Amino acid sequence: MPESEDDLLPVSALQHYVFCTRRAALVHIEGLWSENRFTAEGRVVHDRVHDAKQSESRPGIRSVRGLELRSTLYRLSGKADLVEFHRDPPRVVPVEYKRGVAKPLSPEFRVQLCAQAFCLEEMLDQPIPDGAIYYAKSRKRVRIEFDERLRSETLHAIEGLHAMIASRQTPPAVYDRRCRSCSLIDLCLPKSTRARNAASSYLRKIVAGQVGIAEESPS
User: Fold this and answer.
1) Residues 163-198: pLDDT tens digits?
2) Structural domains of the chain ordered from first start
3) Which of 76, 85, 125, 149 is most deeply packed, by most CB within 10 A?
4) Which residues, 6 or more positions from 161, have their beta carbon under 8 angstroms from its beta carbon?
């Protein structure tokens, strides 16, 4: 695989990609961005956590904030919120901070954290068996095991993200419950896009003779 800096994608892009491929394309292909309350609160949490000056040590644990990550194998780069280096037994634990309260874990959070583990495994040449997601509002920490299923899911997402970025094609919009909390809804316009797609499909059917012109058109 190529190893140039331009070929590296941000680990954070995987969260967008798993949540919604169109969102990932709007951000990382078309360069669009817009904030809402949720993204603003999340940014504040991450800005605080990424302050490397706050790195600290506890008995048996060295905690490093804002650690730069890089993988030439998976062509990723990024920054870990927190990485714990445990002395006894020796192990490395990446910790990702999220706003809000602990809830059933979204797959995009688990994949993003596992990708951080991929980077750390390559950088440190040692296995990373698990990590954690910390929810700032509820102050609850949830352990995430990097089992074979999650590793396979993460690898699939990495490959899909790279393929999408290389294609320079933005997937069509699909309006569903995710759209209501998405900060890009006014740029994505999923309802309008859906209507245009329905009209285009209807016209193609007319041309193909599959429906008559007198039939009711899609709303």
Assistant:
1) 999 999 999 988 888 888 888 888 888 887 554 554
2) 5-172 (3.90.320.10)
3) 76
4) 9, 13, 14, 17, 24
